[in-house]
Design a protein that fits this description.
The chain is built from 8 helices and 5 strands; from the N terminus they run αααββααβαβαβα. It is α+β, with helices and mostly antiparallel strands.
């Protein structure tokens, strides 16, 4: 693709003014950097979505574990109370037997011997119950300690999730506000092949080629230039955004010995022309702009070639704050 873009860019620069080889190389370097940054942003966005889903799954798992611990704690508490009742009854019986044993000790009758045997059995049972009680108390203490640890961990994770959700909502609200602002600025072009919509926290401005360019041309007409100037003015204060201008063509093959020679070159040259108009007529920061050509391979309607011939401007939020939250996890 680089071999295609270099002649295309050379042709654009030749049409505008003569530049040195060094300036050309700098432009080529900047173009490559913008494309690399675009791919990195997409990768980071996918990682963010995956990490957010993992955190939500982790929180759900912790909730289930806490519910299980709370259920175990309830059962152990019930068993403990039951054993305490038994212990009290056995202890009471032991006192009764001891009293009887003292009274009847002088009478070594068969009844006394049986009572003594019963007393020994009772004592053995009592010791077993006491041992079981100690074990249950230790288990209960351990469960309660685990529950406190899990509750603390859950609170931290819920705070992270809430922070992420709040930041995502803020970006969603900002994207909606920006969409409304752009739509208002471009209201005069609403029925002329221009649409503005917000999806997944990004704002998409789509301009059909007929609004901007004569057929097969990379020269922007007066009406299209005004639409781009209005758009650039509306977003020139957006310093925390990244803006990608994508050129799209239809599937009709373009073959020419002059520039543009095919749909790839046509899409790249058109997106570059749009970026230049936006930069030259507003205070928009060039660092947040990128131009790319998509040729014919991303149609919006396979049955409508006119809709596929378009410039699509994608305005994305800066995700550094989200990445910082994820990295601190």
């Amino acid at each position: 693709m680089k071999s295609v873009l270099i002649p295309a860019l050379a042709a654009v620069l030749t049409l505008g003014s003569c530049v040195t080889a060094r300036q050309y190389e700098e432009l080529e370097t900047r173009k490559n950097e913008y494309q690399t940054e675009n791919e990195q942003l997409k990768t980071k966005n996918e990682q963010l979505t995956t990490r957010a889903n993992e955190m939500e799954a982790s929180v759900s798992d912790l909730n289930k574990r806490i519910e299980a611990l709370e259920s175990d704690t309830t059962l152990l508490g019930t068993s403990l109370r039951h054993l305490r009742n038994q212990y009290d009854k056995i202890h009471e019986l032991n006192d009764i037997l001891m009293n009887k044993n003292t009274t009847m000790l002088s009478e070594m009758t068969a009844e006394n011997r049986q009572l003594l045997e019963d007393l020994q059995v009772t004592r053995t049972e009592l010791q077993e119950k006491e041992d079981a009680l100690v074990l249950l108390e230790n288990q209960l203490n351990e469960k309660e300690a685990n529950l406190e640890t899990l509750n603390a961990e859950l609170e931290v994770r819920e705070a992270k999730v809430n922070e992420l959700q709040e930041l995502l909502q803020q970006q969603e609200d900002a994207a909606n506000a920006l969409k409304d602002k752009i739509a208002a600025a471009l209201l005069g072009f609403k029925d002329k092949g221009l649409t503005v919509e917000q999806k997944n926290g990004k704002v998409y401005v789509s301009l059909e080629a007929k609004l901007l360019f004569p057929s097969g041309s990379t020269n922007i007409n007066a009406e299209g230039k005004q639409a781009l100037i209005d758009l650039a003015k509306a977003i020139e204060d957006q310093t925390e955004m990244e803006i990608i201008v994508e050129g799209h063509t239809d599937t009709d093959a373009l073959r020419s010995n002059s520039i543009p020679r095919d749909n790839w070159e046509l899409s790249v040259l058109r997106s570059t022309a749009v970026v230049k108009i936006m930069m030259d007529n507003s205070a928009i920061n060039p660092k947040i702009l990128a131009a790319s050509g998509r040729s014919e391979f991303h149609p919006v309607d396979p049955e409508d070639k006119a809709r596929n011939r378009r410039i699509e401007i994608v305005i994305s939020p800066n995700l550094n704050d989200l990445f910082n939250i994820i990295d601190n996890e």
